[in-house]
Amino acid sequence: MKNNFFKALEFILVLLSLIILSGCKKEKEYVRIYYLDRDENVVYESKVEKGAKLSENPYVSKEEGTYYLWDFEAAKLEYNLDEINDIVWIYGDLQYVDVEYKLYYNDELVHEERLKYNLDYTFYPELPENGVKKDERREWNKDDKYTYKCDIYLTYEIVEPTYEITFMDGDQTVLDKIEYQRKDVINLPTYEKEGYEFIGWFLSDLSYTPYTKVENMKGNLYFYARFNEIELHDTITLPEAKYNFTGVKKTETSVAGVYTIQPVFPSGVATGVTNYDWTSSDEAVATVSQWSSITAKGAGYTVVTATLKTDKTLTINALFKVNVDGIFLSSQEEANTFNVYTVKFVGKNDELIKECKIKENGTLSYPTPPSYDGYVFVGWDKDNYNITENTTIKAQYVSSSEKKNEFVGKSFSIIGDSISTYQDIIPAGFSCFYPYPTADVSNYNRTWWMMTINRLGGTLFLNNSYSGSCVAHDSTSSTYLKSRLNYCNVQGQFADVCLIFMGANDAASSVVSEAKFKERYKIMLDNLVEMAPDMELVLMTLPISKLYNSERQAAFNKIISDYALEYNFKLVDINAVNITNDLVDSAHPKTSGMKILADAIVEILTKNE
Question: Which of 144, 149, 353, 451 is packed most tightly, with the most Cβ within 10 A?
Answer without folding.
Answer: 451
